[in-house]
Amino acid sequence: MSEHRIATIMRRDFPTLAPDTPIRRAIAILVDAGAAAAPVIGEDGRLDGLLTQKDCFRPALHASYHQEWMGQVADQMSREVIRVEASDDVIRVAEMFLAHPHRVFPVMDGAAVVGMVHRSDVLSFLLRAG
User: Fold this and answer.
1) What SS3 state is found at 96?
2) What does the pLDDT average to over 97-109?
């Protein structure tokens, strides 16, 4: 099974966000796309961070309490992002999901985000392959 690469199972259709996107708009994008997370891409085209649904709870709760949406994606995103390469072996990424609580990793090809791999996609692959 070691010849199977993440590029073969990653999701290529995913939302992206900019650091200056208003957080309310970013949450709407995630919800509308049914996405667990979205990569945050800087002006230079590089990965600046990752905004997850969990990251969105604090500003959403604040808005529900105070009837006011505040902040941008940069205020809430995770800056330390665990990422995988498109050429990574599926087994290696499965082991990464065991080691980290994340549900999704950005997939990179060099400095470019080319996909997202979800824990459920890797598990589904392992089920079919096993």
Assistant:
1) helix
2) 96
